[in-house]
Design a protein that fits this description.
Length: 512
């Protein structure tokens, strides 16, 4: 197996571009593939490096190394596993600015967003350090004469993680700390659009004392994904991404006998009732709609505004949008670029759709003045009012800084719209009526609900995941369900004979 440090190749015009390798066996690894993909700095619109794209054979070779390393890690004590995770947590916390700079350079999110992403990932690492408590079994004494029954939780083996471009650090940390704590080995396939964070974390895990081979990073595209989904030595797949791909991941991996947690897309609504604090609601809509340039599955993309307050709320939202600075994430701006030029153009195209469908474009982000390079993948915060429910602006997961206003008659109208939706990831209600809030949290058909909280992402000791077309598979991410997903229960029935016991009994066991 060839190992190497990142090298450089000469492109046309004598431009030298770094090539990012895979991480296998505790070192950079080139693999056999000659295919690469560009990794952009979205704020500059320029390629900053290339990343290798693994073939199926590369994935097979990487899994062989990971599978060979797994038994020793499985047999490592809980105390030792925990100490490695503690060391990783301390190293990451001390060097988080370094990782944040990587996230901003490759994803485009502003540095404050990047640091927030890392903080949420660290919460899961903290939680995973409690593995000793979370993997305890149960014990029933003397269920029959001299017979005890108890359960233990054991790791499942080599697990696969396929993560998206929008949270290159946090989403992998939703999975691999818990998987490692439970005694599994991990093969991570990050997005080829921003893969460096995964390699950086792999290096940090090695520095923290994780044995070589237990954590593997294979860069690639669909070929690498498909190889993981069908590989006989990969016992589970964890995925976050769009709903069509989540469905494909679930169906393919499950057909090949794997556990699957596949978190899909979203169209998150925020219902604002007439008694709500409109300043609070406007702040929340702007923060939840345009943070991370709207490229997050928990972004609020639809505000359901009751007619009594709709005009005032739209005005307040527009006022706040006018104060936002869009630009390079290293310059203290509020919102950065989108991930690629193609995605920016696709998102911007929805403004033409909105106009043709009779909606009102209140704030057009296509003409935004940016604090950044002219070639960056820019689209400013966009606000569209009176969006029809049959418009693609409403039905599609746009995944960009586009906030839609849908006007509703009241609570029941808003609730019905949410519950008719295809997705069920996150939702929020803004009101000062406790009865309305309690009724909403009981009646809404969504997996994560906020009451006067626009982005209700659970803390690490609860689990993350939606309903309906937003989640496919066996378990939600992290929290108690994460440990259950990455471990399997074994029930043991035992009898230790008393020294005075004698004789034979070939009859069927009975509960006597």
């Amino acid at each position: 197996m060839r190992r190497r440090t990142p090298t450089a190749v000469k492109e046309e015009g004598e431009t030298v571009t770094d090539i990012l390798d895979h991480w296998v066996g505790g070192a950079a690894w080139q693999g056999a593939s000659t295919r690469t993909a560009p990794v952009y700095n979205p704020a500059l619109g320029a390629v900053q490096k290339e990343v290798r794209l693994a073939t199926s054979a590369d994935v097979d070779a990487a899994v062989v190394v990971t599978a060979a390393a797994w038994p020793a890690w499985r047999d490592t004590s809980i105390a030792k596993r925990t100490s490695v995770l503690f060391a990783f947590r301390e190293l990451l916390n001390a060097r988080k600015d370094e990782l944040a700079a990587i996230l901003t350079a490759e994803h485009g999110k502003v540095l404050s967003d990047a640091l927030g992403e890392i903080a949420r990932g660290l919460e899961v690492v903290d939680f995973a350090c409690g593995v000793g408590h979370l993997t305890k079994g149960t014990y029933s004494e003397n269920v029959s004469s001299g017979v005890d029954v108890y359960t233990v939780r054991q790791p499942i083996g080599v697990v696969g993680v396929i993560s998206p471009f929008n949270f290159p650090a946090m989403v992998p940390m939703w999975f691999f700390p818990i998987a490692l704590a439970a005694g599994n080995a991990v093969v991570l396939k990050p997005s080829e659009k921003d893969p460096t964070a995964s390699i950086w974390m792999a290096q940090l895990l090695r520095e923290a004392g994780l044995p070589d081979g237990v954590f593997t990073v294979v860069n690639g595209d669909k070929e690498a994904v498909d190889a993981l989904l069908v590989h006989p030595d990969i016992r589970s797949i964890s995925f976050v991404g769009s709903t069509p791909i989540a469905q494909y991941i679930y169906q393919t991996a499950a057909t090949h006998g794997k556990r699957v947690q596949a978190l899909g897309g979203a169209k998150n609504h925020m219902l604002v009732l007439p008694d709500a604090d409109l300043d609070l609601a406007a702040d929340a809509a702007v923060n939840a709609g345009f943070g991370s340039a709207g490229e997050r599955c928990m972004a609020v993309s639809v505000v359901l505004a009751t007619e009594q307050i709709a005009d005032a709320l739209v005005e307040k939202i527009a006022e706040r949008m006018a104060t936002l600075r869009t630009g390079d994430g290293t310059r203290g701006c509020d919102m950065g670029p989108l991930i690629t030029r193609e995605h920016r153009d696709k998102v911007a195209g929805y403004l033409d759709v909105a106009a043709s469908d009779g909606a009102t474009v209140v704030v057009d982000g296509r003409g935004v003045e940016v604090d950044g390079d002219a070639d960056g993948f820019w689209l400013g915060p966009t606000l569209i009012d009176r969006v029809p429910l049959d418009s693609a602006v409403y039905t599609d997961e746009i995944f960009g800084p586009v906030l839609s206003i849908v006007r509703v008659e009241g609570y029941q109208d808003g609730l019905d719209i949410i519950n008719r939706g295809r997705y069920g990831n996150g939702t929020a209600i803004f009101t000062n009526d406790g009865g309305a809030a309690r009724r909403f949290q009981r009646e809404v058909q969504v997996g994560m609900v906020g009451v006067n909280v626009p982005i209700p992402v659970p803390v690490a000791y609860h689990s993350f995941g939606g309903w309906k077309a937003s989640l496919f598979g066996d378990a939600k991410a992290y929290g108690p369900q994460g440990f259950e997903f990455f471990s399997q229960e074994k029930a043991i029935t035992s009898r230790w004979l008393d020294p005075s016991h004698g004789g034979l009994n070939l009859g069927f066991p009975q509960n006597a």
